Amino acid sequence: MPSKLPRLFVSPRSRGRADVALDRDQAHYLANVLRMKPDSYVLIFNGADGEWCARVTTAGKKSMSLVAEHQTRPQEGGPDLHYLFAPIKRARVDYMAQKATEMGASVCRPTITRRTVAERIKVERLAANAVEAAEQCGILRVPEVRAPQKLEDVLSTWEPERRLVVADETAAVASPLDVLAAEASRPHAVLIGPEGGFDPDERALLLKQDFVLPISLGPRIMRADTAAVACLTLVNAVWGDWR
Known about the structure:
The protein has about 240 residues and is of the alpha/beta class. It is about 30% helix and about 25% strand.
């Protein structure tokens, strides 16, 4: 058996002796790109049952079936971390979905602000990028990707026990680690605004909310995708699974 096997996210079952039918794209990738034949092996996971080594039982050009033979890793959890972001250009949104997955986000929520200028968000594309990142990086869970919502609607239905960390370029420049460390541990979320920054009325609305914690990311203005990675890193270091 090869030391490094390809990994696939499958749904819904992957546990022992379960037969797993792959979708057409997965079957094409294994059969026509990797040239896998019956009795070849692949690693599979579904976000709930850990990672399993599966054997190819049938292989055709457009279909393929596997059987899960033994577990290679038990299911791992991760931080209860929601990632909210104002959509930007498509290629960079793809990047943000991938990096949020790698950083352990449990939920991705596109959030429409007044200065959002990106084209229509395709939830299926975001989900596909999250899956691809999880497959490539050895992660055992894939974040839930929710439909886009306007910022005002997000705030009006917010769970008040979940702290919302907002990257705010107008916040006082101070150590974000100190600001975060002063907060009690609780479920948390990160919000990255649009490239032009939040509209003044939106910023005022955010700062009125008891659950909002604005932080500075330093003296330099970052692109939205850079700010996302920076903010997720800080939150993981203080509240997440990097402690």
